[in-house]
């Protein structure tokens, strides 16, 4: 072979290699999923996305696992500044809707409508919007857990299914006193969490025309009771009074450590309870106490959304659609020990493999709570301005708890806050 021929051959090989590397660079795509986890949500998503990557060579799904507080507080700032992730697990379904990527051009719309039904409306911008913006990954219900072992040690009967908030307050105080347990009751510091109890006390949240009002006699009645319980020691004070602004604060650590008799949170905590409590004590789900307006918790949950600023819209839609396929969704529901929002998965039932008897019983108990949820609660969860209402609730109720405002003044301020928020939104 002549030197000229060798040079041509090497040049051709080099060019071909360059073309191959260039092609790989073009096909290599990375998208980021911001995820928070109450148990195994992010790890389970990682397992499923590993299969997605295998089926789509050159694609990488990077999972950025963050605290839930970052989803509530940092993600909106990032999205507003154009620096958000490609997709994320969110709970402010309506409040972030202006940033959502419409998946409809890239997915089988009929499959999504058949599988997720009414929850798709929670992500849309209005009645005329037919887009598909996110996959509801779990259908949690708010309500309570109790440390049943403490009730048994105290010799106190567990209140029945129709027990009121007053019944539970009296029972838990007695249990705490007899067992020398630190806290009788606690509720996550969240406007979403306190909404169900307020609705159970008759709060309507909206007027006859559907306009948000937040404060009425029923809402005020529950807030007064809630504040009183913080003053007399029934409620663990630091959960709400120990944090400023609108910051979220859970009370799960107190319950897991055995320092709390009654914990008002929600169904998403089952995996954490199952994984962390073990044989330390028996825990059970008792749902939501009753009032004049029923025995309602709040529906809610998280959705996995893509965002319109992504550089890879088709790939983001493809990744979320992969999660939404019935087999993958059923796996995700089972491993994360959640209640499914996918209608096909719910109809067939979920086999929670590896769950303890306590966890299985808890998940079944949560499923039974869905029928008790008030229509007001469903309307509130789907309302586009609910995030502002949740924030107002936390801020003003906290001020009443710490003594900065009377309950009456706090409720007046909440009305003013809502009027201002609605004016700004319009």
Descriptive account of the structure:
There is one protein chain. By secondary structure, the protein is α/β, with parallel strands linked by helices. The protein folds into two domains: 30-139 and 300-353, Periplasmic binding protein-like II (D-Maltodextrin-Binding Protein, domain 2, 3-Layer(aba) Sandwich), CATH 3.40.190; 142-298 and 365-425, Periplasmic binding protein-like II (D-Maltodextrin-Binding Protein, domain 2, 3-Layer(aba) Sandwich), CATH 3.40.190. Helix content is 50%, strand content 11%. The protein has 18 helices and nine strands. The strands form two sheets. A five-stranded mixed sheet has the order 2-1-3-9-4. It has a four-stranded mixed sheet with strand order 6-7-5-8. Helix 2 (41-55) links the parallel strand 1 and strand 2. The longest helix is centred in the N-terminal third of the chain and has 25 residues, at 3-27. The chain is globular. The termini are far apart. The relative contact order is 0.16.
Short description:
The protein is α/β, with parallel strands linked by helices and 426 residues long. Helices cover 50% and strands 11% of the residues. It has two domains: 30-139 and 300-353, Periplasmic binding protein-like II (D-Maltodextrin-Binding Protein, domain 2), CATH 3.40.190.10; 142-298 and 365-425, Periplasmic binding protein-like II (D-Maltodextrin-Binding Protein, domain 2), CATH 3.40.190.10.
* Strand line-up of the largest beta sheet: 2-1-3-9-4
Number of strands: 9
Q: Quick one: CATH superfamily of the largest domain? A: Periplasmic binding protein-like II
CATH topology of the largest domain: D-Maltodextrin-Binding Protein, domain 2
Beta strand %: 5-15%
């Amino acid at each position: 072979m002549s030197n000229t021929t060798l040079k041509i051959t090497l040049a051709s090989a080099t060019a071909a290699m360059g073309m191959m590397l260039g092609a790989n660079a073009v096909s290599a795509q990375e998208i980021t999923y911001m995820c928070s986890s109450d148990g195994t949500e992010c790890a389970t998503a990682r397992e499923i996305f590993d299969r997605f990557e295998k089926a789509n060579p050159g694609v990488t799904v990077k999972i950025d696992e963050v605290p839930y507080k970052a989803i509530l507080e940092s993600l909106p700032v990032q999205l507003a500044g154009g620096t958000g992730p490609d997709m994320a697990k969110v709970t402010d379904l309506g409040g972030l809707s202006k940033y959502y990527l419409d998946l409809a051009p890239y997915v089988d719309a009929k499959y999504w409508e058949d599988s997720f039904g009414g929850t798709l409306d929670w992500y849309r911008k209005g009645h005329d919007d037919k887009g598909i913006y996110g996959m509801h990954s779990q259908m949690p219900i708010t309500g309570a857990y109790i440390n049943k072992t403490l009730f048994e040690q105290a010799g106190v009967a567990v209140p029945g299914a129709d027990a009121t908030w007053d019944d539970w307050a009296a029972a838990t105080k007695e249990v705490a006193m007899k067992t020398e347990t630190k806290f009788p009751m606690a509720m996550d510091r969240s406007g979403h969490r306190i909404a169900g109890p307020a609705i159970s006390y008759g709060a309507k949240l909206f007027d006859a025309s559907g306009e948000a009002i937040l404060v009425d006699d029923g809402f005020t009645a529950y807030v007064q009771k809630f504040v009183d319980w913080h003053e007399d020691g029934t409620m663990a004070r630091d959960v709400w009074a120990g944090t400023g602004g609108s910051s979220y604060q859970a009370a799960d650590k107190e319950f897991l450590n055995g320092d709390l008799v009654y914990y008002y949170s929600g169904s998403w905590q089952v995996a954490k309870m199952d994984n962390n409590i073990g044989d330390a004590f028996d825990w059970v789900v008792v749902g939501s106490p009753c009032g004049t307006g029923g025995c309602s918790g709040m529906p809610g949950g998280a959705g996995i959304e893509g965002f319109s600023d992504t550089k890879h819209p088709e790939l983001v839609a493809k990744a979320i659609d992969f999660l939404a396929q019935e087999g993958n969704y059923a796996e995700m529901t089972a491993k994360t020990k959640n209640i499914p929002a996918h209608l096909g998965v719910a109809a067939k039932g979920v086999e929670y493999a590896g769950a303890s008897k306590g966890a299985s019983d808890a998940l079944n108990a949560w499923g039974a709570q869905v029928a008790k949820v008030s229509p007001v609660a469903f309307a509130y969860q789907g309302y586009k301005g609910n995030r502002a209402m949740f924030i107002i609730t936390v801020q003003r109720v906290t001020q009443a708890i710490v003594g900065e405002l009377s309950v009456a003044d706090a409720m007046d301020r909440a009305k003013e806050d809502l009027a201002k928020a609605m004016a700004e939104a319009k």
